[in-house]
Amino acid sequence: MPSLLALHGAGRDETDLAEFAAAIAPDLSLLAPRGAYPEGQGFTFFRRRPDRSLDAPAILSVASDWLASRSDLPKAPALLIGYSSGAIFAEALIASAPGRFAGAILMRPKPLAAEFLFPPLMGLPVLILAGRHDPRRRSEDAPLLTRQLSAAGARVDGHMLDCGHGWAPEDQDVILSRAWRQRQRAG
Length: 187
Hints:
alpha/beta, Rossmann fold, six-stranded parallel sheet, two-stranded antiparallel sheet, 32% helix, globular
């Protein structure tokens, strides 16, 4: 059965995206790991610098090691879902092993670095769902990430939602993700 790999945000845990995953991909087997590093009341997949900025080389190293250490990951390419820091970690996984993934839904993402270059992504479908009023992201983050992924050959579909860092009103995240998945399956 095809799989979905769901990566929670910082301070959350492996149960965080279960309802969302079931709503958009009930046909996929869910793999929802817990981040390895304690943060707040939950966990995260990587550590930030003391000033909360991203250390792209360190995150990429953690992503490569994480992929190498996980015997439970499916052999067939999985759909990635990442929320917030989980979206950032999803970017690092894609950059580390693009052939391992069938596509990605990146919610409230941030680029790994301003000048980051992804390896060739040869048509990898990616959905970016950003918040127009997100206090944790700069207004240029989603457009920059879209350009970086597109420059590597990904097929990016991006939306600026009328929300902050949390879930968009009226189930917009679910509706847009479900529609995107239907388009991907239709070919």
